[in-house]
Amino acid sequence: MHHDRMNEPVPAAALMALAAVLGDRVTTSRDLCRQHANAVSWLPVEPPEVVVWPVSTADVVAIVRIAAKFNVPLIPFGAGTSLEGHVNAPCGGIALDMSRMNRVVAVRTADLDCTVEAGVTRGDLNRHLRDTGLFFPVDPGAETATLGGMASTRASGTTTVRYGTMADNVRSMTVVLADGSVIETGTRAAKSAAGLDLTQLFIGAEGTLGIITELTLRLHPVPQAIGTVVAAFETMGAACEAAMMAVTSEPLIARLELLDALTIGAVNRKSALGLAEGPSLFIEVHGARATIDTHIEALDSLLRDAGASRCQRASALEDRTRLWRARHDAFWAVCEAWPGRSAVVSDACVPLSRLSDCIIATQADIRDYSLVAPIVGHVGDGNFHAIVMVDPSDVSEMARTNTFLDRLGRRAIAMGGTCTGEHGIGQGKRELLALQAGPALPVMHAIKRALDPSNILNPGKIF
Amino acid sequence: MHHDRMNEPVPAAALMALAAVLGDRVTTSRDLCRQHANAVSWLPVEPPEVVVWPVSTADVVAIVRIAAKFNVPLIPFGAGTSLEGHVNAPCGGIALDMSRMNRVVAVRTADLDCTVEAGVTRGDLNRHLRDTGLFFPVDPGAETATLGGMASTRASGTTTVRYGTMADNVRSMTVVLADGSVIETGTRAAKSAAGLDLTQLFIGAEGTLGIITELTLRLHPVPQAIGTVVAAFETMGAACEAAMMAVTSEPLIARLELLDALTIGAVNRKSALGLAEGPSLFIEVHGARATIDTHIEALDSLLRDAGASRCQRASALEDRTRLWRARHDAFWAVCEAWPGRSAVVSDACVPLSRLSDCIIATQADIRDYSLVAPIVGHVGDGNFHAIVMVDPSDVSEMARTNTFLDRLGRRAIAMGGTCTGEHGIGQGKRELLALQAGPALPVMHAIKRALDPSNILNPGKIF
């Protein structure tokens, strides 16, 4: 769909109009433009021509009106941590850096909600909430991910098995449409049956339908008590089987992570944790003080019955922290374990019963294509990542990586799953989306055309 | 938007085309047409001209193609239990009775999901699941509600505080579009970041964007143990305050229902339960055998601290059943308490902190307008119903009821909530939707036009 755009440079009159509204919050600096393009994936860097820093919804309205008038692409930019080229500018245009829209507008503890500007990071929000007894659970890894970006990519992560994805934790958003009009997508009520769900329409739309400027988020009570169990298994199949049993029988599971033997090895080398080097589950339980130990004991014996060769449990903060550091550091541990290589990270998500088959087939592919690719997963959701450690100058290896990732996406789709559980489509997975959606793809196109007929909003992504 | 339709009768050629596909599964019988129009609300009955009984997605495709060719409205019909005129035929046309699409296609226990045809009722599904250890939690009241209808109205109910609404429990749907094409809206993965969320677009669309023919639903493990606490309070304010405290501090709450004093009185008269006649909370906790009593005790003392004048608890099945019968029978108890009157039921949903204010202001209105209207609520979600017991022949009372309901919707919107938490817009709440959505309403219209340009799908609803 982005081929229907002419690649004209942003006209000088548009730059003047932007400067008139934003003063020095506009730049065409090559360095700054480059910093606002894709930086964390294998996709080529395609910088925008202009970067602007709005500080209010009114600023975004003015910017969108100028872009519409001059038919210039707009690319919303949060923290740049997305993985599929979402912030690239294949048709040129203006990057909207949302980082200065970073106010927490309101926290309403009695309503278990808050309203934030789109540039607030999830780390900053949780620091802001520290004394309220509440927290925002969605954890995609990057501390600096912005809540607007997380909504745009329908992010999720380690806590999704209990607390859901961004889709489950956004009540409403303020969105600026392609014509400059401003809408509120929903209300602050916990649920609504009032017409089409526009909140869910803009979540995961990757900035192609409108620019998110504010979000009202659902908050959760900080659990009274937290317990952890870490269990190592002989085989990947046994670990996946145990994960399925745990999900079905233990209602308090808040995190259920899988690390393969390669990842555990990397973590051990980085942090000297002495973990058993087999496929391992890291499980966190959130519950009540009076009963947490009972739940941890039940989980521990379930995992042993399921064949865990080694099982450690912890409820004291320092013990938990030590164990979860392994999970949190996994990506960096993997990067350090293969110095001089770069990480190409992809994800897939399949029905639980197919998880073991999917991971085992993926590992076979990794061997067959002579790749190095540790696997880490949010397996309570059937979601996992392959972290391919590549030498970007090795043309053959990059080609094999490409084929491997394509096969991974196709395998997940064939198993009734999705080519991406949490990273999004961006530029990188458009062919896989076409395969996955089939006759539903024209419906997405029809909605895009209805809301952004000139295709100025993040062209070249999803569609 | 339905005024742009001409009210032409269904042409004879269309009837012949339908009969050629469906044989005797087509009727123009006045009685049958009348049975397929709104029967349970205060809105006028507007019967369709034709009723058809598809038995497959292919049948629905054929029906939609005929309707498109002859420009005839199509009104999907589940069980006819919706409350806002969703199944009326204000522009005439064809009712699609989905009751013969009632097969459970697959139950996949390991994936915690199942696939059903749209006409399967929630009661039948749960009976089908009886020996699997799994259940489908969404409980809008009516046992006979179909899963397709529940998805179309974004239904929810007593268990939503724990298990979510239909939006949280549908993974994917098969939908026939206005041009007869068939799409699958999603996958069977627990989550996906692959493009626009079409599943959420069709949920709550009330049949205006497509005809749902199959659904893949998320299932949940039957809880090991269930406990109940019922608590009566002196005032509505105290009951609402206690509900908020319970929601924040007890993670295992699966139902949190409010019955006002009038409702408790009606229930006592019907079933001689001897409940204390004040505003009361009915709370159900779903948890593990080993810890359920600890949770029930904690909840009991929380409710007493919050001012409960009387508190009963039960974990044995017969005791629980006795107490929950009061909640389940509430609607019928109210109907019996005012014989000769009809129930006009409406709902609203507000942020938790406004629930008490909203209910108290609503009760003041009930007095001021000289109405009889017990209040029952899913207050864990901030959602409540007013059951106005009217004499439909009393023109003044009907006018006062209308004004009262309009004020209720506006009050909920003004408090940051929604004019309907679970009943939907249908014909009855279109003005309130326009008020609530404001500049977002044209976005809904744009999507409707993009997907159903001839407005043949359930015209006169939502839009």
Chain-wise SSE layout:
2 copies of one chain form a homodimer.
Chain A: H1 12-22, E1 26-27, H2 30-35, E2 50-52, H3 57-70, E3 74-77, E4 94-97, E5 104-108, E6 113-117, H4 122-128, E7 134-135, H5 147-152, H6 160-163, H7 166-169, E8 170-176, E9 182-184, H8 198-202, E10 211-218, E11 220-221, E12 225-232, H9 236-249, E13 253-259, H10 261-271, E14 280-287, H11 292-305, E15 310-314, H12 317-328, H13 330-337, E16 342-349, H14 355-368, E17 375-378, E18 383-390, H15 395-414, H16 430-437, H17 441-451
Parallel strand pairs in A: 2-4, 3-4
Antiparallel strand pairs in A: 1-2, 5-6, 6-10, 7-11, 8-9, 8-10, 12-14, 12-15, 13-14, 13-17, 16-18, 17-18
Helix pairs in contact in A: 1-3, 9-14, 10-13, 14-15
Write a brief structural summary.
By secondary structure, chain A is of the alpha+beta class. In chain A, 37% of the residues lie in helices and 20% in strands.
